[in-house]
């Protein structure tokens, strides 16, 4: 199990495992709480992620669930320690959309990321200059600076992981053709496009373009991201909107498989990877002409 997934994912993995262990023993939350002389609300908060779990409390739960293997106990204790670590994205709380920051926490520990965007370059493959231009017009100078800084810090933090996530992006051709930055520095967008093409030639990053010739497609409904994880943790779906209007969906929600299917349908309409890279590099040359 990776130890660099961040506190949100490690907490979710730990809670998922504890719920599974309880259900395997066919115990209710009330029965477990009674055995440990806890209030039922304490276990509900622990399993729901409202309360951090101490080493002592975790050991008590593992006793009830008959988890005796030292290796398994240590793995779960390691998850608990990781869940209590401070999150680097907490520095942005109070200034940026809390739903987005929660998504940032999950994406920080993802093993596979699939994203479609039809209007802008996805944040994790933006250049600093492109990110800065996109942030122009924020309600305050502080929000503008923090939004751009967060995009780049996300990239840097993911690059530090021992096993960085595989990233698969689909973008509309409109994203490639829009000359972002033309009023401030016309070189920003060509440099951004060449950066994408360079990334797409790596093994862990794939970029596909849905061409204008594909006509209408399901991605026109809006951008979305699907996160997958190592371990027994369900996928997370993030539907991007304006601040305060974004939505993060977890658990067994029917929309998650629906968007998985949507991503596959978009792949069918997208150009192959090599043709996508060629289109992106041609677009960069056109913008520099």
Short description:
The protein has helices spanning 7-24, 29-36, 40-47, 55-64, 70-84, 98-107, 128-135, 141-160, 173-177, 188-200, 255-269, 273-288; strands at 112-117, 166-172, 205-210, 224-228, 236-239, 247-249.
Keywords:
elongated; alpha/beta; single chain; 12 helices; 289 residues; 434 Repressor (Amino-terminal Domain); Endonuclease, Chain A; 6 strands; six-stranded mixed β-sheet; 2 domains; 51% helix
Can you describe this structure?
The protein contains twelve helices and six strands. It is an alpha/beta fold and 289 residues long. It has a six-stranded mixed β-sheet with strand order 3-2-1-4-5-6, with helices on both faces. It has two domains: 7-84, 434 Repressor (Amino-terminal Domain), CATH 1.10.260; 88-288, Endonuclease, Chain A, CATH 3.30.870. It has helices at 7-24, 29-36, 40-47, 55-64, 70-84, 98-107, 128-135, 141-160, 173-177, 188-200, 255-269, 273-288, and strands at residues 112-117, 166-172, 205-210, 224-228, 236-239, 247-249. A hairpin with a 7-residue loop joins β4 (224-228) and β5. The longest helix is centred in the middle third of the chain and has 20 residues, at 141-160.
């Amino acid at each position: 199990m990776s130890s660099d997934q961040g506190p949100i994912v490690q907490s979710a993995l730990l809670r998922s495992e504890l719920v599974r262990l309880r259900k395997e023993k066919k115990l209710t939350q009330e029965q477990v709480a009674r055995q440990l002389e806890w209030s039922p609300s304490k276990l509900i908060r622990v399993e729901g992620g409202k309360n951090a779990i101490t080493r002592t409390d975790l050991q008590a739960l593992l006793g009830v669930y008959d988890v005796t293997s030292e290796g398994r106990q240590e793995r779960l204790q390691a998850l608990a320690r990781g869940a209590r670590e401070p999150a680097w994205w907490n520095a942005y709380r109070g200034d940026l959309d809390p739903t987005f920051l929660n998504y940032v926490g999950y994406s920080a520990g993802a093993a596979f990321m699939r994203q479609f965007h039809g209007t802008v370059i996805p944040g994790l493959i933006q250049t600093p200059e492109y990110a800065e231009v996109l942030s122009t017009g924020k309600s305050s100078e502080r929000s503008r600076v923090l939004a751009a800084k967060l995009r780049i810090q996300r990239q840097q933090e993911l690059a530090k992981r021992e096993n960085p996530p595989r990233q698969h992006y689909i973008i509309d051709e409109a994203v490639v053709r829009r000359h972002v930055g033309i009023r401030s520095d016309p070189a920003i967008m060509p440099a951004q496009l060449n950066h994408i093409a360079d990334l797409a030639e790596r093994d862990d990053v794939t970029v596909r373009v849905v061409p204008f010739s594909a006509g209408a497609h399901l991605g026109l409904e809006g951008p979305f991201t699907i996160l997958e994880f190592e371990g027994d943790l369900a996928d997370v779906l993030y539907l991007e909107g304006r601040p305060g209007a974004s939505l993060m969906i977890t658990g067994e929600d029917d929309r998650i498989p629906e968007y998985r299917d949507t991503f596959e349908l978009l792949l069918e309409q997208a150009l192959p990877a090599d043709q996508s890279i060629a289109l992106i590099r041609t677009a960069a040359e056109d913008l520099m002409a």
